[in-house]
Write a structure and sequence with these properties.
By secondary structure, the protein is of the alpha/beta class. It has 15 helices and 13 strands. Helix 6 runs parallel beside helix 7. The strands form 3 sheets. The chain has an 8-stranded parallel sheet with strand order 10-9-8-7-6-5-4-11. A 3-stranded antiparallel sheet has the order 1-2-3. The longest helix is centred in the first third of the chain and has 20 residues. The site of magnesium ion has 5 residues, from loops. Magnesium ion binds next to loops.
Length: about 400
């Protein structure tokens, strides 16, 4: 097969706010090859990511992503890896390239899986898929009472694990954070798994993060996620020295394999969380999963958008029998929910499985998405480099 077309669709809610809700807009990618179609999603600014695919070349090390993809052969997993390597080299100075390529790469696995009639995880080298324990992933409430209520609601919906992140956490005093942690534990109950996401709030301030450790350990939080900037490895390692029961988690900011590996080796995290829509797709995410296994670090998916992205994020995780928990966003925008025709829902036991279907196993609801489409054109020097294609 030859990659004949790569189409980008910029989708957005009518209003986008400063809330840390990554499902407010989306960049959907459609690829076509050999009579098959594959879908993927980038986790990045849609407009900037489209531009990285079509922009004029700046020099030999700063070429548009499209130059490495269109017209290329696609017959095997090795072809996807070959294109990844070419982009890493030919677009080394185009920092958005990894984000753009992530959605395209995911769509290529979806397409290849459909062409072979196998799920994407089999193409990644797994022979069996294991059920995962989804954690309800949501933002902290504005007040401790709100946080407790959100925890109870998640448990009432059948979730055995709950993550709270961002919102007011880390923005006020250590006492205010401790109040939220007590409320969070109260909300999820003594048996629930409690996970906390600081959303990089302390930059590289180890002392500020350390102040919160007693309350985190008292609340029996399993992990503290992203206390620092994604590349502040020394800060991660310094904080790890002071952790007794709570482990550090991070990795969602990684936009290549090496960043994730450094966080494992130098940041001494216990959980590595990979977003396939940022790291360059399923290939590098699986490479991180393999590396994490060797280093006794638990691999976790990261995702906060549609169930297309959720399915993609689960593919590198699903074949690992011992890495049980997975991120499961529970407060999606209507755009992210309506993006797919089918959804991945917890069973009676509170566990999830991937759809039993080829590729990513998720259909795209092109009819419902039309109302979210942001018509976009990129014109340079009078030449139209991009125009929103027909969504059908
Ligand atoms: Mg996070």
């Amino acid at each position: 097969m030859k990659i004949e077309a790569v189409d980008f669709f910029y989708l957005s809610m009518p209003e986008v706010t400063t809330a840390a809700d990554g499902s407010q807009d989306a960049l959907l990618v459609r690829v076509a090859a050999g009579g098959h179609v594959g879908w993927g999603e980038c986790e990045a600014s849609p407009l900037v990511s489209i531009a990285a695919f079509v922009c004029p070349m700046s020099h030999g090390g700063c070429r548009p992503v499209g130059a490495s993809v269109l017209g290329e052969r696609l017959d095997s997993a090795a072809d996807i890896e070959r294109i990844s390597s070419r982009i890493a080299y030919d677009s080394m100075d185009l920092l958005q390239a990894a984000h753009t390529w992530s959605g395209v790469e995911i769509a290529l696995w979806d397409l290849l899986g459909k062409a072979r009639n196998v799920p994407a995880w089999q193409l990644l080298g797994y022979s069996k898929a294991y059920k995962k324990l989804p954690y309800a992933s949501q933002l902290f409430g504005d007040t401790p009472d709100d946080t407790a209520r959100l925890g109870r609601e998640a448990v009432n919906k059948g979730f055995r694990a709950v993550k709270f992140g961002w919102g007011p956490f880390g923005r006020g005093s250590a006492k205010s954070d401790a109040d939220h942690l007590v409320a969070a534990r109260e909300g999820v109950g003594q048996d629930g798994t409690l996970l906390i996401d600081a959303g990089q709030i302390w930059g590289e301030d180890v002392a500020a993060a350390k102040l919160r450790l007693p309350a985190l350990e008292k609340a029996a939080a399993t992990w503290l996620e992203e206390p620092f900037h994604g590349s502040a490895y020394e800060a991660y390692a310094a904080l790890a020295d002071h952790c007794t029961s709570v482990r550090l988690a991070g990795g969602e900011a990684a936009h290549n394999f090496f960043m994730a590996r450094h966080l494992i080796d130098y940041g001494r995290i216990g959980y590595v969380q990979i977003d396939c829509g940022r790291i360059g797709g399923l290939g590098p995410a699986k490479r991180v999963a393999d590396y994490a296994q060797k280093r006794n670090v638990t691999f976790v998916n990261h995702t906060f958008t549609s169930h297309l992205a959720l399915s993609a994020s689960l593919q590198p995780l699903i074949g690992l029998p011992d890495d049980r928990v997975c991120e499961y966003p529970v407060a999606l925008s209507s755009l992210a929910w309506e993006l797919s025709t089918n959804h991945i829902l917890p069973d009676a036991n509170g566990e999830i499985a991937l759809p039993d279907a080829a590729g990513l196993g998720i259909g795209v609801n092109t009819v419902a998405l039309k109302k979210y489409l942001v018509p976009t054109e990129i014109i340079v020097n009078g030449q139209r480099l991009y125009k929103t294609p027909l969504l059908d």
